[in-house]
Task: inverse folding
């Protein structure tokens, strides 16, 4: 087994801002696993919020090269590495490699139905109300808009977005930027504006404040939900969970998390970092049938991979075998 880890940078169409900062480039790691004439690929986004960097994740992957060469499979990987970006890239590359070797697509290897087109949310980054209204107007034909919030002036921003896109369904992402009092104050107004869900309103270490709280506006766990092990601590606080492969540590864990969450009574959202089509392809398998798909990463990029996923407006087509799986 030959293991390759490379850094790739994709320019964004425009500056992307959330409550924690801004960026103009998406920097990712690409893992390639080659055995004989077949190569499997996976992509991950090391996220500083979780103590990850391009260097640290590269080191994690390099540390298991010997095990991969000795036949480490997806199930062993799940036991060997913690959930996170490193395991995600390797896990997805192992799935892709098996598909290439067998000639059987990943969805069939995983016992899933053939993927169908899905509708993804389109994200409007945090900005001034006027700028967000203009962005909303530009994308007002999209059926689902996700609004980045997380600070003073959130209500004004949301009102501006609604003026710009009067017919779109709206969901909001506070990126841990609210308090419980903010939720209580903003939730009724947001419902009046047609918002159907808020993602991670409180910091994950403070989300016990949601226990027993009346939640008129659906609350989705993002930073509070990583893998199957994290699910038990979410009951009574959240109504929905956001599954991201970089948090879960790959497609293997993400599928297990989805099944466990449904059994526990949670609704499912499948999200992404700002990454390329290579990262969206496995996530799309998890997003089949989800209440919310937020897989718009490539739509925010100024450039993408070869054989990229095709987006018809907000409708995503399944990935081609030339890309992944």
Result:
């Amino acid at each position: 087994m030959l293991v390759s880890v490379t850094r790739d940078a994709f320019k964004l169409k425009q500056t992307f801002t959330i409550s924690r900062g801004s960026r103009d480039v998406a920097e990712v790691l690409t893992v390639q696993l080659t055995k004989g004439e077949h190569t499997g690929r996976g992509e991950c986004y090391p996220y500083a919020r979780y103590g990850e960097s391009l260097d640290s994740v590269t080191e994690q992957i390099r540390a298991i090269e010997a095990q991969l060469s000795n036949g480490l499979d997806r199930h062993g990987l799940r036991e060997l590495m913690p959930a996170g970006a490193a395991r995600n890239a390797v896990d997805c590359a192992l799935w892709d490699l098996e598909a290439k070797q067998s000639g059987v697509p990943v969805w069939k290897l995983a016992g899933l139905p053939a993927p169908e087109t899905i509708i993804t949310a389109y994200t409007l980054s945090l900005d001034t109300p006027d700028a967000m209204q203009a962005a909303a107007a530009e994308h007002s034909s999209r059926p689902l808009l996700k609004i980045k919030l997380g600070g003073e002036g959130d209500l004004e921003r949301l009102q501006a977005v609604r003026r710009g896109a009067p017919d779109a369904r709206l969901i909001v992402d506070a990126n841990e930027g609210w308090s419980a009092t903010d939720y209580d104050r903003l939730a009724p107004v947001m419902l009046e504006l047609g918002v159907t869900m808020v993602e991670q309103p409180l910091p994950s270490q403070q989300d016990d404040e949601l226990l027993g709280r009346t939640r008129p506006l659906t609350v989705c766990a993002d930073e509070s939900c990583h893998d199957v092990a994290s699910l038990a601590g979410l009951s009574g606080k959240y109504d929905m969970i956001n599954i991201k492969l970089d948090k879960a540590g790959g497609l293997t864990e993400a599928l297990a998390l989805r099944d466990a969450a449904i059994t526990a009574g949670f609704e499912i959202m499948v999200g992404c970092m700002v990454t390329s089509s290579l990262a969206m392809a496995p996530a799309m398998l998890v997003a089949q049938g989800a209440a919310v798909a937020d897989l718009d990463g490539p739509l925010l990029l100024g450039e993408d991979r070869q054989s990229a996923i095709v987006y018809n407006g907000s409708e995503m087509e399944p990935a081609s075998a030339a890309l992944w799986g």
User: Anything to note?
Assistant: The first strand starts at residue 2 and ends at 18. The radius of gyration is 19 Å. The mean pLDDT is 95.
